[in-house]
Specification:
- With 138 residues, the chain is of the alpha+beta class.
- The protein has helices at residues 40-46, 96-99, 102-137; strands at residues 6-15, 18-22, 29-32, 54-59, 82-92.
Length: 138
Amino acid sequence: VQKGDTVYIEHRGFHKGQLIDSNPEGEPLLVKVGKHSIIAGMEKAMIGMCVGEKVEADIPPHLAFEEPGKSYRSPVPKGATVTYEITVVEIDRPGLSRFFSPIVLLLIPVALVLAGAGYALQRMRRGSHKKSKSSKRK
């Protein structure tokens, strides 16, 4: 996970062992990393993670519900540290990785084989054409 990625995560947030936050209806949560759609501590904890990786992060108040300049409706008392379990389900990275989707990566070898076969066929035709010209001269 890096800034700019669109990431689907499963998460559960706890304060003193009590569940305070989790995925709505069990569906993965869509997060645009760097757009501040979740608390900063969660984004910070996700940076560098891979699909399927799980992390447990203790998030201090200034990176959670008391983040400067943000007005989150806090489910915890002022000054509280929260713990989040975060699992990365899917990463959608803009740019080249979107172009190199799995289907495109599967088609590249097929295209190379077909191109090679076409080149070989063309060389064979040229070779047979040259032989027929030389046999006519005799």
